[in-house]
Every structure is written in C-alpha cells, then in structure tokens.
Amino acid sequence: MRIVELKVKDLEYLLKKVRELGYVVEQGPHAVLLDHSELSSYVVKKDNKIIAEIIAHYLTQYYLAEVKGASSDDEYLRELLRIKNSGVKWSIPVNNVLVIIHSDDKEFLDFINNYSDVFPIENGEEIITYYREKNPGYTKIPRILLARLLDESMS
Q1: What totals of helices (H) and strands (E) does the chain contain, helices first?
Q2: 30: Cβ–Cβ under 8 A, 6 or more apart, which residues?
Q3: Which pLDDT value is given to residue 66?
Q4: Between residues 57 and 141, which one has the greater pLDDT?
Q5: Within 10 A of 38 (CB to CB), how many other CB atoms are there?
Q6: What is residue 41's three-state secondary structure?
Q7: Stated pTM of the model
Q8: Residue 130's closest CA among 51, 63, 33?
Q9: d(CA 60, CA 144)
Q10: Which residues touch 15 (CB under 8 Å, ≥6 apart)?
C-alpha cells in the first residue's frame, strides 16, 4: 500500500475518467463541513478487488452562495435554490486528493501518474483562494479521514 497526493482541479472529471477506464467507483463516507466544504471518500474496484481509495476535500457549486455573502437567511436560501435550478454542477478540491493505492494495477498507476486537468469553471482558482483565506486550517481536514481509512484497511 502507498499513498499518493494528486493535484486535481476537477474532481468530477477525475472520477469520470477512472470509470471510463473500466473501474467501479463507489462513494464511501461523505460529510458537509461547517465551513461549507465537503469531504468524501471513494473506493475504486476492478473485478470486485479494491484497487484504491480516494479522499477528496472539495467545494461544490453551492459554495457560490457563501461567496456571494447573502445579507439574510432568505436571500441565502434563494441563492441556493437558484444554483440548484441552474443545472451547474462541479467539485473543486481545496487540497491535493489523496489516493491510497492497494494494488499494483498498472493501468490505474499509469493513469494516476499521468493525470492532469483544468478547473471546471473559469473562476475556479479565485473561489479556492477565497475559501483558503477564510479557512486557514483547511489542509488538516483530510488527515482525519485518511487515518480512519488506514485503520480500517489494516484491520
């Protein structure tokens, strides 16, 4: 087993590409945190064998309601509904994505080693910067889930 930190700008694209290679991606634990970011883990399988686990700490399109800075709960809820009804969907990691590799699957390893992408929206970098400035401890968040997954895989 080894852990790789992967620079990802578009989580949805990463997961889509893994699926396109023929892997099954199952979502594991997911949480929406108090800072409006989200934390998820995914299990990557092929032929019912666990190839890897992915841990992602990210923002979704709903974070735009936070960026907008609504002056009331009503305004905030209206903005959330506007975003939901817009059909726009994206997930931008605020930290490097952690990949716990459990297998020597060459195709998956090559994919991870050569992966690159771009932000799914034009102002992606600005949104991430805004989040990071408001939440300076953001880098510590994925560590807890990583520790838990390591505990589970060792038992």
Answers
A1: 6, 6
A2: 38, 39, 40, 41
A3: 85
A4: 57
A5: 20
A6: strand
A7: 0.89
A8: 63
A9: 21
A10: 25, 42, 54
